[in-house]
Amino acid sequence: MATEPLMICSENGAIGLEAGLRVLRAGGRALDALEAAALPVELNRQDRTVGIGGVPNLLKQVQLDAGIMDGATLSVGAVAALEGYLEPVRVARKVLELLPHSLLVGPGAARFAQEHGFEQAEHLTAEAEAQWRARLQERGVWPVDEDHLTECCRRALREERWGGTVNFIALDRAGDLAACVSTSGIGWKYPGRVGDSPQAGAGFYADNRCGAACCTGRGELAIQGGTALRTVIHLEQGLAPLEAGTRAMQFLRRVRDGWGGGMNLLVLDRTGRHAGFSSVTGRKYAYQSISMDEYAMEERTCVEIGQEETQERYPF
Ligand code: ASP
User: Fold this and answer.
1) Which of 77, 182, 221, 254 is positioned for an S-S bond with 92, CB 3.0–4.6 A?
2) Which atom of ligand 1 is nearest to the CA of 218?
3) Residues 137-190: pLDDT tens digits?
4) Which of 212, 172, 184 is nearest to 68 (CA)?
5) CATH superfamily of 6-302
6) What is the pLDDT of residue 313?
7) Which residues contact 177 (CB under 8 A, 6 or more apart)?
8) What's the CA gap between 144 and 3, in Å, rounded?
């Protein structure tokens, strides 16, 4: 019997599930369901980690990253450090469909968004700006010294909790899997910093033959651990989602860059089995299949990844 179409997402994505499920119920494609589901999150001004309302970088610019992958063709579209455009996942999807490229950054990404008629908007909200300034004041780096951004970045991000970003994975009626991520990245980041979210293999991966995975958390960890692809390879090797994700999380213990940070991972296999993970306790994820009237929240399995910050990296 064919698996029932479904979606899973990070907790903050629950507000978009209904829009995605409508697409799947109508027999639509997983990629279209992702676009529909991501949009309400990207437009949610209350979410300080995705789209409009995101906390800005050190120069007070909101720079957005997004990526999307089609598990049927392994096609990827992504944008990084995109400024001023709504719907970054839709822009990423257009890259996937129209260009012989996978990732556009900065002004090139904005130019592409403009060429294809995407709407522009001011992304910095008063609330996000206040949060941004308060942290800089608290860390003694206000006003920002633009000649010494490295030091500002190190101070501002010390003991950062790294929470946010939205993940969605969908499985449609045809058995196609797709995954997407959208984020404003970590606030107070160095201008131009790009995390895992627009990087296939790090922040997201999907392969119809076995399954899909997505990450949130400190992107540098997922980049160094190849976390999304590593998870999918474990599925390909025949592991169940719970085991595949646990192993990919445990691999992060080998990362010793000293900057600490947490990781969260979602996994959906091609048969509809899913699992969620976090390096801290108490985190959840949401899922909904087309026969469910409402989404359900599931506890993430906590896998300790040993990323305590080493104080010698912080001489201030
Ligand atoms: N993974 C995102 C990044 O590193 C941030 C997050 O998920 O909180 O940009």
Assistant:
1) 77
2) 4
3) 999 999 999 999 999 999 999 877 667 899 999 999 999 999 999 999 999 999
4) 212
5) (Glycosyl)asparaginase (3.60.20.30)
6) 44
7) 30, 71, 72, 169, 170, 171, 206, 207, 208, 211, 212, 268, 270
8) 53
Distance 82 CA to ligand 1 centre (A): 15
Angle between helices 126-138 and 149-156 (to 10 degrees): 90
What pTM was estimated for this model as a whole? 0.97
Does residue 162 line the site of ligand 1, with CB under 6 A? Answer: yes
Residue ranges of domains in the chain: 6-302
Which band of pLDDT confidence, cut at 50, 70 and 90, is reported for residue 281?
A: very high
Q: Which residues are catalytic?
A: 165
Q: Are 281 and 6 in contact (CB under 8 A)?
A: no
- Kindly calculate the radius of gyration of the chain based on its CA atoms and give it in whole angstroms: 18
**How many Å apart are CA 265 and CA 230, to the nearest integer?**
11
SS3 state of residue 205 = strand
Ligand 1 neighbourhood includes 176 CB (under 6 angstroms): no
CA-to-CA dists, residue 316 to 60, 135, 178, 313, angstroms: 23, 16, 44, 9
Distance 219 CA to ligand 1 centre (A): 5
For residue 219, give the ligand 1 atom closest to its CA. 4
219 burial via Cβ count (<10 Å: 0-12, 13-18, 19+): buried
pLDDT over 60 at 310, yes or no: no
210 near 269, Cβ under 8 Å?
Answer: yes
The ligand 1 atom at the shortest distance from the C-alpha of residue 203 is: 1
Side-by-side strand order, sheet with 75-82:
103-105, 75-82, 64-70, 177-183, 166-171, 6-10, 284-289, 296-299
Q: Which amino acid is at 285?
A: Y
Cβ–Cβ contacts within 10 Å for residue 305, how many? 25
Query: In this structure, are residues 188 and 135 in contact, taking their beta carbons and an 8 Å threshold?
Result: yes
Q: What is the DSSP string of 244-260?
A: HHHHHHHHGGG---S--
